[in-house]
Design the sequence.
């Protein structure tokens, strides 16, 4: 099979993998910050609930979580969902999973900030929201970028798990073509795609780290 034909056949799967990656980041990064606030809440009920949610997300396989999100509404509540819910279930599963990981990264960064900065901001007349948005958050982002980068790179590879609920992303498409052509070439091409995708994302994250490393 010609490489151009193979790439054309894999193109749709590549697009789906990219969509999963982008949509997961768009929703899980801000959601993770809100989850982090819940995890640090002074309200014991909220704090323990969020802590339990995080432990479930981090303690069970993402593959299993995708199956629960997709099959759960039907088997638990008897709700029949439209065909497009398959892709939506993938996004929901990825977002709630990665939000839990990002939440712990955010929490670690926020709790690492010195209390003196909060006290100084209060003396200068900053409100709590102003203190967090203008003083604390920029420093937190700088500190957690390496950890965020690791999770983002892992996300690229995790997109292949969408196959568990029959969403035809890149790896699923490569597997189908390899089976029909009795060839390993589609897997090699898919591997190259994942590597290039990882390399581009890692380079972008490294550039961002250099940009925010203004004290170096």
Sequence:
């Amino acid at each position: 099979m010609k490489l151009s034909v193979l790439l054309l056949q894999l193109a749709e799967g590549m697009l789906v993998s990219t969509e999963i990656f982008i949509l997961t980041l768009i929703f899980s990064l801000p959601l993770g910050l809100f989850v982090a606030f819940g995890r640090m809440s002074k309200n014991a009920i909220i704090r323990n609930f969020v802590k339990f949610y995080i432990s479930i997300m981090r303690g069970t396989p993402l593959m299993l979580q995708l199956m629960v999100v997709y099959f759960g509404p039907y088997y638990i509540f008897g709700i029949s969902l439209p065909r497009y819910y398959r892709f939506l279930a993938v996004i929901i599963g990825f977002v709630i999973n990665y939000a839990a990981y990002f939440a712990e990264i955010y929490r670690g960064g926020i709790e690492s900030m010195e209390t003196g900065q909060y006290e100084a901001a209060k003396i200068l007349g900053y409100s709590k929201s102003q203190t967090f948005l203008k003083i604390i958050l920029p420093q937190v982002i700088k500190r957690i970028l390496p950890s965020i980068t690791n999770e983002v790179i892992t996300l690229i590879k995790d997109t292949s798990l969408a196959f568990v609920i029959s969403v035809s992303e890149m790896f699923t498409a490569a597997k189908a073509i390899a089976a029909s052509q009795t060839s390993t070439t589609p897997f090699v091409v898919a591997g190259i795609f994942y590597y290039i995708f990882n390399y581009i994302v890692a380079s972008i994250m490294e550039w961002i780290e250099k940009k925010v490393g203004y004290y170096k």
Notes: The mean pLDDT is 87. The two ends are 51 Å apart (CA to CA). Residues 3-212 form a domain with the MetI-like fold fold (CATH 1.10.3720.10). The helical segments are 3-39, 44-59, 62-77, 85-111, 115-123, 128-158, 170-181, 185-212.
